[in-house]
């Protein structure tokens, strides 16, 4: 039989060629020796001229033998590779695959880190809640916590519900879904890379061991929500004893559960490592993201505008600037339809003046023009469906005609697997946002913060952080004529002179974690040294 592991097809042919050469040369020598003996049996009184004649004959015969066997060997090899299968007594070991195996790999795969060996204190299961980037940050936190507690982390379950799931329903959903592999995770992230790239820090499994899975199926698992903005000592003193007691602990809320500041440097650096290295999107998402960036680059530089003006955002925030009466009523009904959205009565005007509303498309247009963003720039809209549609986008499209979206750059067939999957669509926008020449978010949501931090990590790429509170005040003054365009533009530029993603220290506000700078928007422990930051 053909044994590929012992010899490739080319090696076998080479061996056969050597055998043919050996036989051919041997036969040629035998012929020459036989002829020489015959010649010696003849009269020994031949003249010197006869000896020279015999030498010529000997050389001709030797050359002919070599040429004959060379032709036989080449014809045999040619027939083996190219000849019809019917002429071969056994399938050839030579295949295209075996030929490719001999080629050096063009992509060097880095070796996996060695496994970290530690005494396992139990198993930690987590159900991430919120949108893609809120869950992304939570995964980084949970890996760091699992590492610190010396427990085994089960691949996190991702939020499958829209508009930020009701925590009362999360437990029921999670206990059912965690009985099998977290398919949601591997629909967005490369789960095998996630597990293997972090194996030197923490043990991660796709599912519980069989002996513990039955307990999960019966609902005999302790479930709880950890306290928000806790430091690592809380997990060591409160969470670890529960894991040791129950062997399995399920955390059903993961948003903002680890404090921004005051953590050991090893914890902070591990959060960065998971975010920037351990979490990689699936090959399908990565490839499509590269294609979008390539299409944009073919037409020059581009700006990504994270225009957070979707219906759910406006309903939740209660921001209705520029909406008509019918739209205001629709947004209000939606807000009351979700009982877990606690704030119902909202003063939109007051909230806007405090800088707590996302900028409208019209306000965004004025800001871009005041910042002298080139009208010929491509502007990629990283967002869902804009509330109000073309009517609300008219001023932006007039000032910046090169507006594009992933839906306009790609064929519908390219996005067929992403339709109705908001997290996968958000993943595409995330990849494009990282590669843009300029990134401008109109609201400081989770995507804006995480992309800001990632762009800092990539070399402080230009990220313009709009000061909404000052902007709306300037816009209102310009609208009523209190400021000329030049005065308005100058004021906007001065306001944002130092808001382009430059190196800076995180703002720390003790006991007010929601008001201080988010760790993932400026992970300074992973960027510049404290000395270099303090000198700025």
TrEMBL record:
**Membrane topology value:** Single-pass type II membrane protein
Highest rank taxon of the organism: Eukaryota
GO CC annotations, alphabetized: cytoplasm; membrane
| Keywords, sorted A to Z | Carbohydrate metabolism, Fucose metabolism, Glycoprotein, Glycosyltransferase, Membrane, Signal-anchor, Transferase, Transmembrane, Transmembrane helix
Q: Where in the cell is it found?
A: Membrane
Bias type Acidic residues, positions: 527-536
GO MF term list: glycosyltransferase activity
What does the entry give for GO biological process?
fucose metabolic process
The protein's matches in InterPro entries, at most eight in alphabetical order, are given as:
FucosylTrfase_pln (IPR024709), GDP-Fuc_O-FucTrfase (IPR019378)
Q: Where is this region: Disordered?
A: 516-536
Q: What is its main location?
A: membrane
Which pathway does UniProt place it in?
Glycan metabolism
Q: Does the keyword Cell membrane apply?
A: no
Q: Which family does it belong to?
A: Belongs to the glycosyltransferase GT106 family.
Quote the protein name from its UniProt record. Answer: O-fucosyltransferase family protein
